[in-house]
Specification:
alpha/beta; 26% strand; globular
């Protein structure tokens, strides 16, 4: 392994060893707390433009398993781990982490104190960073610049100037390369993936039972960087799924005569996608049931008149608690987002349905004036908790009964819930 470093926009330098491809790359440095699911992280298009740090200290234990890819390629900018496993063990393993990163031309970094890096990002917020690795001319010049105050200042200016732009356009269609026919999804779900789980937490092992309510219904999946498992979860409910690119017009969507519309996850600032938001606004007027996840959740909220803002360091990991306000139950969810819908900006007809129990931010909205609902977290998470996969059943129910949420209300006033979480956070900080 050759020398490699991470240079943060604030001037901090973390020295370690190279992993994967070598060279220089700039991206937004973030961290994710998942103890597993690194394959899904590497192939999740939502990480486009980002240098991802795994907080779990040993990554790569079960190798690389193509059947678990969420898209056909790795869209993140760089990858950082404390230690990687060079001898993975799993009966489905086909490669190791280092080889995968090399093949995907992803520049990585290992043997650094990821705990220290995470604490820096947690306190200061996400910031741009640059991984320098190898012996190329650019790498050697960048290494040398770190020892020259004037050149280092110019290097930091370059790092700070990086911006993630055209994110959705860059990743739309990424999952189509790993999409499988419905019969393959059904046959493999019990063997290699999870089967549908009800609200009561029981699994539905019989595909005919799982498919019963969705049979004969068609869903158009608007692909903003969709994870492959969203389509799989829809298929497992018997729905016919047609995936379309992010720039598909409303007219083209309506020509397909869908019974429901799925708004997928994706990367970047949701407010950047002005035309897509306008299209969603028109789709809301069509009265076709809509389900949004992650970026789809945010853009649906923007289309309805709400606002979004960037979080300090985001929510990324498979252990994020969310509270379902109508039942009072807390679920563990998988998340990956740097923006959130502002609670106080929700318009009339938009009811807060889930909140993050750590900071009180919006995790779900149910609309009473449109047959639509959305969540910020990932109920389809392939390597994550199964708690909230019942939301796909809720979508099927909404397709069969568009008036399902017309009288929806929570057991809590929105302001009271938010004030409760603010108070909890304040007392927690005082006790530390």
């Amino acid at each position: 392994m050759s020398k490699a470093v991470l240079v943060l926009a604030n001037g901090m330098v973390f020295e370690g060893s190279s992993l994967g491809a070598e060279g220089c790359v700039i991206g937004e440095t973030v961290f994710t707390t998942g103890m597993n699911g690194y394959i899904e992280t590497l192939t999740d298009p939502s990480y486009y433009g980002q240098i991802v740090t795994q907080t779990f200290p040993l990554i790569g234990n079960y190798g690389i398993i193509p059947k678990d890819y969420e898209s056909s390629k790795c869209n993140l900018r760089g990858y950082i781990v404390r230690q990687w496993c060079d001898e993975p063990s799993n009966f489905r393993c086909q490669s190791d982490l280092n080889s995968y990163l090399e093949n995907q031309k992803i520049i990585g970094l290992c043997n650094i104190d990821t705990r220290k890096l995470t604490k820096v990002l947690r306190e200061a917020g996400v910031m741009n960073g640059m991984i320098i690795s190898g012996t190329s001319k650019e790498a050697l010049e960048s290494f040398a610049a770190l020892n020259n105050p004037e050149k280092k200042a110019k290097l930091l200016e370059k790092i700070k100037a990086y911006q993630i732009v055209d994110a959705v356009k860059s990743v739309t269609g990424s999952a189509t390369g790993v999409e499988e026919p419905a019969d393959v999804v059904f046959s493999e779900s019990a063997e290699y993936r999870f089967v549908p789980v009800t609200k009561q937490g029981t699994k539905i092992n019989d595909p005919q039972v799982a498919m019963k309510n969705g049979k004969g219904k068609k869903v158009v999946l608007l692909d903003f960087g969709a994870k492959a498992n969203i389509r799989r979860e829809l298929l497992k409910r018997g729905l016919q799924v047609e995936t379309v690119p992010c720039d598909t017009t409303v007219e083209e969507i309506l020509k397909r005569n869908p019974d429901g519309i799925m708004l997928s996850n994706g990367p970047g600032d949701p407010a950047e996608n002005v035309q897509i938001i306008e299209n969603i606004k028109k789709l809301c007027d069509s009265n076709i049931p809509i389900f949004g996840i992650c970026l789809g959740h945010q853009m649906l909220a923007l289309a309805k008149g709400a606002k979004t803002s960037k979080l300090k360091y985001g929510h990324r990991g498979a252990n994020q608690p969310v509270k379902h306000l109508s039942s009072g139950r807390v679920y563990i969810s998988s998340q990956n987002h740097g923006y959130a819908v502002d609670n106080d900006s929700l318009p009339k007809g938009a009811v807060l349905s889930f909140v993050n129990t750590n900071d009180g931010t919006c995790e779900g909205i149910t609309y009473t004036d449109t047959p639509a609902f959305s969540v910020q977290f990932h109920p389809e998470a392939c390597s994550g908790p199964l708690d909230t996969s019942f939301l796909f059943d809720d979508f099927v129910d909404l397709i069969n009964n568009p008036n399902l949420f017309k009288d929806f209300k929570t057991n809590y006033e929105r302001v009271d819930a938010i004030e409760y979480f603010k108070s909890t956070i304040k007392h927690t900080k005082e006790a530390m």
